[in-house]
Write a sequence for this structure.
């Protein structure tokens, strides 16, 4: 739940960055969609966390903040391309973390929350993939065919790994509390 909450906070911040810096209406509109949808997802998550006694942080993880800072440092079309690339990776990782919770979670309410979030995250990912259209710089794994690295892609992979690790830690902690 901590990782999902931080992911929502990061997506809301990314949406705000898109509205402030994007050069295209499509990226700005996607930013607005992320804000609205992730605020709604987070409201349900925060309510359940309160009910279950799970403490939630007030901000995204340091890794998420660093990734967004790196994107914000881009200007013009480079911002749009970097923003879309990191959002694609972040949404892929969020889907994977949610599927892990659905498959292996122990709390029915948390599993239901992950199931409810999955179609929203998938819809975002599908739209982002359409937006990318194979955009230069949107290197999913962080390594381009010429062998060079894309630091924004690598940052997105690190961000996803942090989300997965956080989700696993919450599951382990909850299992320990119940034991």
């Amino acid at each position: 739940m901590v990782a999902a909450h931080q992911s929502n906070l990061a997506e809301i911040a990314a949406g705000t960055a898109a509205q402030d810096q994007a050069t295209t209406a499509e990226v700005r509109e996607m930013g607005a969609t992320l804000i609205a949808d992730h605020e709604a997802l987070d409201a349900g998550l925060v309510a359940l966390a309160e009910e279950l006694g799970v403490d939630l942080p007030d901000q995204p993880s340091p890794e998420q903040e660093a990734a967004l800072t790196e994107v914000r440092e881009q200007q013009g079309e480079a911002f749009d391309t970097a923003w879309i690339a990191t959002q694609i990776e972040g949404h892929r990782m969020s889907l994977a973390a949610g599927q892990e919770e659905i498959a292996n979670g122990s709390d029915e309410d948390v599993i239901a929350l992950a199931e409810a979030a999955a179609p929203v995250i998938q819809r975002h990912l599908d739209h982002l993939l359409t937006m990318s259209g194979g955009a230069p710089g949107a290197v999913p794994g962080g390594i381009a065919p010429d062998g060079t690295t894309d630091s924004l892609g690598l940052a997105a992979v690190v961000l996803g790994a942090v989300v997965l690790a956080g989700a696993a830690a919450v599951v382990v902690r909850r299992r320990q509390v119940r034991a």
User: Anything to note?
Assistant: Confidence is low (pLDDT under 50) at residues 135-176. The chain has one domain: 2-178. Residues 2-178 form a domain with the Ferritin fold (CATH 1.20.1260). The CA atoms of residues 91 and 125 lie 6 Å apart.
